[in-house]
Design brief:
Order of helices and strands: HHHHEHEHEHEHEHEHEHEHH
Number of strands: 8
Structural class: alpha/beta
Largest sheet: 8 strands, parallel, barrel
Strand content: 5-15%
Length: 308
């Protein structure tokens, strides 16, 4: 299976240099990354919202090594909030944050990440939008959930992400569903050992459905992060059984993937949010997109051959 190999490569500096220099990289990266600067991504946000869609914005970059980089990440989100305030889009444009980018992995990282994310969440609330804490590898999750719980004391709309392939996630979902919080469920896109995560795709899909059922029957607001047609259909059926209205859950899909499906779901009256990443440190995010779907990797390889 190529997925685990690609995920391992996402942590390799040698592979980072090779991929960055490859002739077809820029073309393929542009498929998944909306731009390098906030000025480049704002027109895409406006265009997306004009189509009846919503967005969540991610400033890519997680492999930081210094506190100054963590502060710079915080400042990048504060700049983004200033632009969103001028657009007056409210909750149609929220933000997604990886706490590793805010210093979580550094010495004293839990406290540093919390101190960095709090002003971002506060500023987001002041313009009528919110922040979702992205899930990363399993070693970071206890810290992420603790920060999420802390933030929700003052900003209960703060969201978080859970990953279906982890054994722990059903218990996490039960706790979060009862809390009335906003929860995005995804399959998972990190290389995790068999001691903590399902390795078989069919088992991951089954776990996803079990967890989705918990969320739909709970008191929270489920956000379904998937492009899988079967899981989209299952979501609609579980929502119907739970008596949820169309505005009581939402679908989320990645920028550049299944764009026609984005529009179809929105036309049916569903809330459809496009996960839109931008920034210069795109490598880790890009490699996970390649690992998720073989067609993405084939597209990349064809581009390299064409441009070579």
């Amino acid at each position: 299976m190529l997925g685990p190999v690609i995920l391992a490569a996402s942590r390799s500096d040698k592979m980072r240099r090779f991929v960055s220099a490859a002739p077809g990289t820029k073309q393929v990266v542009a498929r998944f990354i909306a731009g390098e600067t906030v000025e480049q991504v704002i027109p895409i946000v406006k265009e997306t919202v004009a189509k009846g869609l919503e967005v969540t914005l991610d400033v890519v970059g997680e492999d930081i090594t210094t506190r100054d980089q963590a502060y710079a990440a915080r400042d990048a989100y504060m700049e983004l909030i200033e632009y969103l305030e001028d657009l007056g889009l409210g909750a149609k444009a929220e933000m997604s944050v990886k706490l590793s980018m805010f210093g979580q992995s550094l010495e004293g990282g839990h406290e540093l990440a919390l101190a960095n994310i709090r002003p971002v969440v506060e500023a987001a609330a002041s313009i009528g939008t919110t922040v979702t804490l992205d899930a990363e590898d399993h070693t970071t999750l206890d810290s992420m959930f603790a920060i999420h719980e802390d933030l929700r004391k003052d900003y209960p709309q703060t969201g978080c992400v859970i990953q279906a392939y982890l054994f722990r996630t059903e218990d996490d979902a039960r706790r979060l569903a009862a809390a009335g919080s906003r929860v995005r469920i995804v399959k998972g896109a990190y290389k995790e050992p068999a001691t903590v995560a399902y390795q078989d795709k069919a088992e991951i899909d089954k776990a996803y459905v079990r967890i989705l059922k918990i969320l739909m029957e709970g008191d929270g607001y489920p956000m379904i992060g998937s492009h899988d047609p079967r899981l989209i259909a299952v979501t609609q059926e579980l929502a119907r059984r739970a008596g949820r209205k169309l505005d009581e859950y939402e679908f989320q899909m990645l920028y550049g993937i299944r764009s026609d499906e984005h529009l179809r779901l929105a036309a049916e009256g569903h809330r459809m949010r496009v996960y839109t990443a931008y920034g210069t440190d795109w490598y880790g995010y890009f490699m996970r997109r390649l690992a998720e779907k073989p067609a993405n990797l084939l597209f990349f390889l064809r581009s390299m051959i064409t441009k070579g």
